[in-house]
Amino acid sequence: MEDQNGRVATSEEEAPGLKKKRKRGSRLTILVMGRIGRVHSFQISRGFLLWTAAFFIAYILVSLHFINDYLELRRTSSLCDQKNNRLEEENAAQRRSIAKSGQQIALLETYIRQLEEGTDFSAPAKREQPRPAAEEKPPAVAAAEKVPKPPQLVDITDTVIQREGASMSINLKLINTQPGEGAVGGYIHLIAVDRKSNPQKEWPYPQEKLEKGMPVNFRKGQFFLIRQYKQMNVKFQLGSASESPSTIKVLVYDQGGELLLQKDLDVTRGS
Q1: Tens of pLDDT along the chain (271 residues)?
Q2: Beta carbons of 189 and 213 less than 8 angstroms apart
Q3: CA-CA distances (angstroms) from residue 54 to 45, 205, 252?
Q4: Residue 86 — φ and ψ, nearest 5°?
């Protein structure tokens, strides 16, 4: 191109118009149409739009990172809570076991002290009146009569026996009959017996191996420690409705394995 003086226009002289067109071309025009047909338009720089998109992408990535950390911390916290609950249950079980062991130790100490004192387990022998020579008994019988019989420490009362199909339940009260306020403890076994069957059928509670109708290990019985009484509710699973025990045998042992009480309860009478 030539100017008025006849010389060719340089690129620098054409630059303002080209720059203006290029500047307009680097912007994006956004049209917004209203309800009544009005159109509003505005322009946004491409650079601004790119920076805004980059910011939102970075924001989303950072948010996903923090959300992932939050979910991981929440899962870890939930696992810690479960572990703490389990430890608390184990701690409670240990405390119950320690309390039970303390009761058994106290019972054993009381039992040993009573054995050393010899007051609670033996009664003073009564003076025998002189008998005529004709009424003298054999030495074995006389020796048996001289041995004092220990007082009964426990007893069974208020027994109620109910039959429900293939099961049988028994409610009873184990009472402390020894004088004073001392506690008595040990192990109790209940054995339902069908004496009419051949061979004789037996259902022990708790489950324990029997030998000649007696538990092999007396410590497998239900532990008790009472000052006054203990209410018990025992349920036997007989296997079928045709089974018919005739007797409930109650066996009570002390901590050393001595049989404190052996009592048969008639099922037909329920007491």
Answers
A1: 445 555 554 545 555 555 555 555 567 777 777 777 677 776 777 788 888 889 999 999 999 999 999 999 999 998 999 989 999 998 988 888 888 888 778 888 777 776 666 544 433 444 445 555 445 555 554 544 554 555 678 888 888 888 887 888 888 899 888 877 778 888 999 998 888 887 888 889 888 888 888 899 888 888 888 888 888 888 888 877 777 788 889 999 988 888 988 888 888 755 4
A2: no
A3: 14, 77, 84
A4: -65, -40
Q: Which of 226, 219, 233, 218 is nearest to 103 (CA)?
A: 226
Domains plus CATH for the chain? 154-266 (2.60.40)
Distance from chain centroid for Cα 262: 33
What's the token pair of residue 225? Answer: 């420690």
* DSSP states along 147-178: SPPPPP-EEEEEEEEEEETTEEEEEEEEEE-S
